[in-house]
Amino acid sequence: MQKRWVVKDAPDAAKVQNIANSLNIGHALASILCQRDICTFDEAKYFFRPSLDNLHDPFLLKDMDKAVNRLVDALHRQERILIYGDYDVDGTTSVALVYGFLQPYFQDRIEYYIPDRYSEGYGVSFQGIDWAQENGYSLIISLDCGVKSIDKIAYATTKGIDFIICDHHLPDEELPQAVAVLDAKRADCPYPYKELAGCGVGFKFMQAFCQQQGFDEEPLFQLLDLVVVSIAADIVPITGENRILAYHGLQRLNNGVLRPGLQALKELAELRSELDITQIVFGFAPRINAAGRMGDAKRSVAMLLAKTKEEAFDKVQKINVSNSERRGHDTSITKEALQMIEDDDFLRNACSTVLYKESWHKGVVGIVASRCIEKYYRPTIILTESNGKATGSARSVHGFDVHQAILACSDLLDQFGGHMYAAGLTLPVENVPAFRERFEQIVAETILEEQRVPMVEIDMPLELHQINQKFFNILKQMEPFGPGNMAPVFMSTCVYDTGSARVVGDAHLKLRLTQDGETFFDAIAFGMAEYYPRIQKGIPFDVCYCIEENVFRGNVTLQLRIKDIRFA
């Protein structure tokens, strides 16, 4: 698919010179920092040395005092409390963190609950509340869900059950009548950072609990490995407070003793090198998610809480079976969905994709939506049948708010929720045709032409001879990379292969590139074997790429990971 290359505007020259002088670095690196609003020595110090001392006061979260007071009351009154979380990675890591931290204080008076994706659906459920009442729980702490569960919280109140909600999704104007609603996105919340993941909100709750009770926070900081997994998997911005949490979480993963569950996942995913955000996203997240997609997400929590290597490996093996099953459904349904588009003139030329088939597996529809976007780059919704309703997931393209587009169709829906780029929805099956028509109309009227073409955002042009180990070492200090702080992308023009180009695997290219015949870099281009015939002929081309380290037989060299290739 042809991509659109967009080079970022050059930052103010005076600011670049200032930060270059302050840090004694070259203009290329200084420009990258200024593009990320790091233009002074103090800003650079805050960025390059993320400190736990710079975490915000947790009591700045609206209702935090109420939440902590209710938790302390439950502790003193020896109440039974239930830790309730969503079935995705953010939800299960949140539950593992809060349950794991509080369990020594509540001992056998605390339990955790993950709703079944198929029988209960997303978020707080009536079934879960009934289970809590039947088992004598008087306080429920919900994590990564609950901020829209007005009717469920009201129902819990009639059962004599209090709720503390820890969520990070955008709430409606009306909030549930819970004891406390911890959500930085509340309109009346003064918390200075709005992009915490659900696990991050749970962490702040536990931090406030420690501070009020005078407990040492170090045992809580040891749980930051769970927080960074949630940050990576939920694709929240790695800026501000999230950057601090992610940085120290990665330190914990790489320099501390891995918890048995994550160690087992690392070995199963064959992740040999130092863990980073990308490895968590592609190595950890699919396997943790698989338990909820294909069965019982409580298995993921149990795996994360496992005390021994043997216990962890037993649980991870079972989760991996679920992941293999998930991949099978993912592949077959994606193939079927793409064929449906290809066979339909309207779908093939539409501005959006909305597909429904009652037999598709509910656990993989979000993945299938993402796969469809890889070929047909446009807002996509994949629906299946569950409990007599059409239910599914939406995914979007760069710059287009799919949540707002779905909101414009809300009169056709039973419920929906999510973010700019991902959402879930449920509607009567008979409304699917009308929804498909309305959604297409909304997208066609609001999507910009440039949003219909995949974009590669390039930080700056670069000559290959400017790349060296010192340059890379400073780039590496900008990690962790992710939304809001992506790995820098560079563009080099008129490069050519030295004659070593070859196809590896089914569709990848291994190259050795030069511009001047004096500086050479190995390069890997995934999924770009189609360019091999022209490259082999020695035809010059332009590349955009990230710089990374490649470890081979114990040798570490710099390598270009190519994002796109363009011929004149």
TrEMBL record:
Family assignment from sequence similarity: Belongs to the RecJ family.
Stretches assigned to the DHHA1 domain: 354-445
Domain spans labelled RecJ OB: 458-564
GO MF annotation, one: exonuclease activity
Gene3D superfamilies the UniProt entry points to: 3.10.310.30, 3.90.1640.30
Lineage start: Bacteria, Pseudomonadati, Bacteroidota, Cytophagia, Cytophagales
Origin species: Rufibacter sediminis
One Pfam entry name: DHHA1
Protein name, per record: Single-stranded-DNA-specific exonuclease RecJ
